[in-house]
Amino acid sequence: DETIPMQSACGTQGETIPMQIARGTQGETIPMQSACGTQGETISETSSKIKEYHFNASHGWYTRAVNKRFNLRFGKLHGEAESADFQGAEKFIPEVTKFIVDYFDGPEFVYNADEFGLNYKKVPTSSLQLPDNKMRGFKPNKIRVTGMVCGNLAGEKLKPLIIGKFQNPRDLPKDSARRDKLACYYEANKSSWMTGSLYWKWFLSCFIPEMEKRHGEDFYVLLLVDNCAAHPEVVGTLDPRVIMIFYFPD
């Protein structure tokens, strides 16, 4: 067997293999595990590619060759760009616009519903301070409520839904007659998040009665909502007077 100096094996061909893997997977959203090749590939499998040098790469070799020499770092993948269908999203807007023009009488029949989260007890993370004095921060307060707002293209707003953690908070009236007079609907679950059952209940108990009140019993409306697990597709089949369309995933 030919004896190859360590600098030759590690400094030339040896170090180019992990770099080639990193460059090849950069635009394809293929995770690399701690500079050991693609996902699931071990150090020994990657080092077997250097067959002519009979070289076994150790973890220390990868640390020196990859992290220090090429400045590669093990980092978290951000966003969900891979799940987004950009071509489908480009076709979505003109197709929905044509559908609205062809089948609905006006903007007052096209509704959009969406949720938001509100950490109403969270304190600011920034403040004015003296140059020689660093202020300490606060432990973030994670108490929150979730809101569901809905309106139409004509600018008309429906009564919002607020989801809290407790079924009967002390600040709200206990009897249903007084609670119905509030400026919002109120529901609760232990996480203060929207769930499929709460969305189902909102659709039948809040949205449909509001539509009958505004447009009469023979209404025909379009409802646009996010494509998420808290919005079950089966809800769109509960009432034939409502056409439900889901946005493309982010």
From TrEMBL:
DDE-1 domain boundaries: 144-236
Domain of life: Eukaryota
GO molecular function terms noted in the UniProt entry: DNA binding
GO cellular component, one term: nucleus
InterPro entries per the UniProt record, alphabetical: CenT-Element_Derived, DDE_SF_endonuclease_dom
Official protein name in the record: DDE-1 domain-containing protein
Organism, scientific name: Meganyctiphanes norvegica (Northern krill)
Organism taxonomic ancestry: Eukaryota, Metazoa, Ecdysozoa, Arthropoda, Crustacea
